[in-house]
Structures are given as structure tokens and as C-alpha cells.
Amino acid sequence: MGSMFEPLPAANYRKPLGIRFIEHIKQKTLSYKTYQAIVLIVTFCAYASYHATRKTTSVVKSALDPESDVSLKFSPWWRKNLGRPGPLGSGWAPFDRSDGTSLLGEIDVAFLGVYSIGMYFSGHLGDRLNLRILLTVGMVGTGLFTAMYGVGYWANIHMFSYFLIDQMLAGLFQSTGWPSVVAVVGNWFGKSNRGLIMGIWNAHTSVGNIVGSLVASALLAYGWGWSFVVPGLMIAFVGLVVFLILPVSPESVGTVAEEDQLHSPKKYREGVTEPLLQSDTEDHKIAVGFIEAWKIPGVAPFALCLFFAKLVAYTFLYWLPFYISHTAIEGKYLSNATAGNLSTIFDVGGVVGGILAGHISDHLNARAITAASFMYCAIPALFFYRSYGSVSLPVNMLLMFITGVFVNGPYALITTAVSADLGTHSSLKGNSKALATVTAIIDGTGSVGAAIGPLLTGYISAKSWSAVFTMLMASALVAGLLLTRLVVAEVAAKIAEASRQGGPTSVSPPQPEV
User: Fold this and answer.
1) How many Å apart are CA 165 and CA 91, to the nearest integer?
2) Which helix (H) or strand (E) holds 491?
3) Residue 329: phi, psi to the nearest 5?
4) Average of per-residue pLDDT across 428-453
């Protein structure tokens, strides 16, 4: 047993150049806690930069398509936009036409469609390749194609196909991010307090959205191209930092998990409740296949739940600034830059929601109950924001914050703590090579919903924003209902536990179900 905590032979690992430089300066090897801090900070910055580049498109939408009272008429893009650009209005052709809103929606769905498909492949690769290299390539590629979208401003490009293909390639590189960062964090942290730790860590999503909104809004005055180029350069720089210092696992840098990480406490009731939180420590090196990962208990219902949860969350991500600038608040319309800045309140609520959902799920030891409860609470939050958000600016901000809490809370919980729990599930018998694949399955399925939501919004919004919010409320309801079986199992386990605690202490706990 003592040999488990001895340093691994030098031949088994090669530390990143930045880690070796830090250790050379300090004249000693880094502690396990220091490595954990580095992992949290670097992966936080990495995925925040991913979302910063993703958020810019929603801020720039109002500059590309400034009309507020257009009527939506469907016309396939290939009939109108592969030839000469149409007449240039106050926006940017071809998005300044009557169908500009639907064209922007089609770009969103192209990006997210490729992103969701690429996610499955990225997760498969992530369990087989060096995650540090995969993440670096994804970030630099994302930066390149984000900047190329902005280059269209100076190159005076008005071909819809240019923007469409660029965003599809950006989506492909973006898909490498989430499976990689979750797998790295999962490699370094056990299940103890995982919900709270990952809830705090998952604030990178909202922080990235806030930074992206503020940067893009500030640069709009200098030309919308800068709103893409600067975030593109930012993510490429962070990608180089990832390459230099990110330790992907304890084994990769010659250290091992501390004892409390290896043997985090387990409760016998986990076997009879929704089986997420058991894990072993033996590391098998054979990666789990795609079909086998789908068969892990809990993966399918949480993946389908995330489909509808991300449909709601990404509709806000891509359309909230546009909605704010096209909706009168106290009888006045806000400027594009002001709407972009105001939309960050939703992301601030998302930070609080992610942390709150993680803490509650840890305290209750019930992921499904927490996620479903938040989704049900999102329904009245959406209704009140649509109905009363126009009353005044303070009311709009308050309701937007509350909506962000309940919309982003379960989204954050499922994509972080739940994915990590399922990726180290007891049915895998200690095989840790499933984490990126499971993460990719759950978030990839969710990303399909993330693609559909903005697409439908592009068509529906020009006719009725109330219809858009009805769609979002229905999606939140379905997301909660999909977890019903797991919620019932968790409630039954809580009742059984309470009855056991009230009975004789000599009664042995039931054996976990197989």
C-alpha cells in the first residue's frame, strides 16, 4: 500500500515546459495541492476564453441586422447568398435584408450543429490522446476562425457562404474544449464536494460570456470586425499558456492523488439510489467505447435533459442582447452596446445558479432532484421576465438575474459534476478512460438542443417573442420531466435512509443493486 504514494519513475511522464521552469525557479517539485490549483485556474481561463469567443456573435447580431420590425419570410440561403450580395442598408449585407434574422439563426445552427457532432469525436479522441495537445489545437484553431469572421469587415465580404463556413470550422475546433477540460479536472479531483467545486469552477461559462459581451460591446464603436479579432487573439494566447503549463493528470507529472482523493467516503445508499457517485481508483488503460458509455446508468436521461436545458440556455446566449435591443423598456429602446452590457446580468445569475446547484446537490447527495427542481423553477422565471421585463430597467435586471440562476444552474451541474460522476461510475469497475467520452456524449447531445433553440428563435422571433418564450418554458418542463425516474429513485432512497436511521442500529445496510 505504501508504494501507491511514491513518485512514479521519470520515464513514465514528461512534465510541461512551464511546470519544469516553475520547479527550476523554486528549486523543488510542486505539491499535489499546487497542481490542483494550477489545473483549476488554467482550465477556468481556457473555457472562459472559449465562451468569450462564442458570445461575440450575439452582441454583433444587432449591428449586422439592426431592423426591429422586420417580418420573417423563409427563403433558403443558397438561393440568395451564394451570388452577388444584396443591397447594403444600415447593417451588413446579407444580414440587413428582411430575412436577416433567419440568416443569423442559420449561422448559429451551423456552428452548433458542427460543434455537437464534433463533440462526440473529440470525446473519443480525448480518452486516447494527450489532452493538453488536443486542447491547445482546439483553442488556437478557434482563435483563427473567430478572427477570420471579423476579417470579413475589413475585406468587405458580403457572401453568406463565407460567414457560414467560417463558423462551421470554428464550431469544429470549439468542440475540443469541453470534453478536454472536464476530463482534466476529473483526473485531479475526487467526488468529495465535487458539485460545489465544479459549480464554482463552472463560473468560467458565465465569466467568459460576460468578458465576451463587454469586449465585443466596447469594440463595436470601432467596427464590428474588432469584436471578433480581439477575442480570437485572446483565446489563441490562452491556448499557448495551456500548452506550456497544463498538467493533464497526476500520472503525467509524476505524482499521485492524496489519500483523501483516492478514498473519498462512500455511502451504502448510493447503490440503491440514482447511481452516480461511486468510483474506484484502479486505472485501467483501455478506453470505453461510445456505445458502452451510453449504457452507463444515468447517462441517457441526463443527456436528454441537457438537450432541452441547453436549448433554453443557448437561446439566451445567442439572442438575449438582440432581444433587449429590440424590446422597449420603459418605452425606450437601448443601443446595441448597452444591450450587450445589460445581458451580462443573466450570466451573473448563471454564476450564482451554478454554485448554488452544486452546493445543494452535494448537501442533498441528489443530483437529479436538484437539476429537476431548478428546471421547474425556470418556467415561472421565464414567464415573469417576458411579461414584466419591460416595466422598468431595475425590474428587467432583477428578473434577468433570477432567470439566469434557474436556467444556468442545472446546465452547469449536468455538464460538470454529473458528467464527472458518470465518467467514473462504479459500473466501469475503476476504468478512468471514459471521462472524456461520457462528457462528450452528455454535452454533445445537449449541444444538438443548443443548435435547435437559436435556429427556431431566428424564425419565431420576427413574428412573436412571446412564442419564443413559450417554446423555452415548454423545453424547461420537458427537461425536468426527463429526470422523473431518477428523481423518484433518489426520493425513495432518502425515505429508505430515514426509516433505517429511525430503526435499530444493528440492522445492516442493504447491498447495492447490480
Assistant:
1) 21
2) helix 484-502
3) -115, 120
4) 73
Cβ burial 491-502 (10 Å sphere, 16+ → b, else e): eebbeebeebee
- 3-state DSSP percent of the chain in helix, strand and coil, to 5: 70, 0, 30
Find residue 332's DSSP bridge partners: 329
Q: Please give the Cα distance from 179 to 459 (Å, whole number).
A: 31
Cis peptide before 94 (omega within 30 of 0): yes
- If one counts every other C-beta atom within 10 angstroms of the C-beta of residue 193, the result is 15
Maximum distance among all alpha carbons in the chain?
A: 82
222 burial via Cβ count (<10 Å: 0-12, 13-18, 19+): exposed
3-state SS record for 223-278: CCCHHHHHHHHHHHHHHHHHHHHCCCCCHHHCCCCCHHHHCCCCCHHHHCCCCCCC
pLDDT for 134 equals 92
**What are the Cα distances from residue 431, in Å, to 169, 217, 247, 437?**
33, 46, 20, 12
**Cell digits for 284?**
485501467
Report whether 149 contacts 166 (CB < 8 A): yes
Query: Which range has highest mean pLDDT (71-85, 198-212, 419-433)?
Result: 198-212
Give the pLDDT confidence score for residue 488 in this predicted structure: 92
**Burial of 241: CB neighbours in 10 Å, binned 0-12, 13-18, 19+:** middle
- Of the candidates 476, 461, 466, the residue with the CA atom closest to the CA atom of residue 381: 476
Query: How far apart, in whole angstroms, are the C-alpha atoms of residue 200 and residue 183?
Result: 17
Angle at 101 between CA 97 and CA 104, to 5 degrees: 105
Helix and strand element counts for the chain (H, E): 21, 0
- The owner of cell 499557448 is 240
Averaged pLDDT for residues 106-126: 83
CA-nearest of 447, 476, 307 to 383 is 476
Amino acid at 182: V
130 Cβ partners below 8 Å, 6+ apart?
A: 248
Beta-strand runs (E) in 13-125: none
Helix (H, G, I), strand (E, B) or coil at 34: helix
- Looking at residue 169, its amino acid is L
pLDDT band at 503 (very low <50, low <70, confident <90, very high): low
Q: How far is CA 42 from the centre of its chain?
A: 16
Residue with cell 452548433: 112
- CA angle centred on 354, ends 366 and 57, rounded to 5°: 140
CA-to-CA distance for 251 and 101, rounded, in angstroms?
A: 50
User: Residue 186 CA to chain centroid, in angstroms?
Assistant: 15
Confidence of residue 475 (pLDDT cuts 50, 70, 90): very high
Taking residue 201's Cβ as centre, other Cβ atoms within 10 Å add up to 26
Residue with the three cell numbers 448554488 = 356
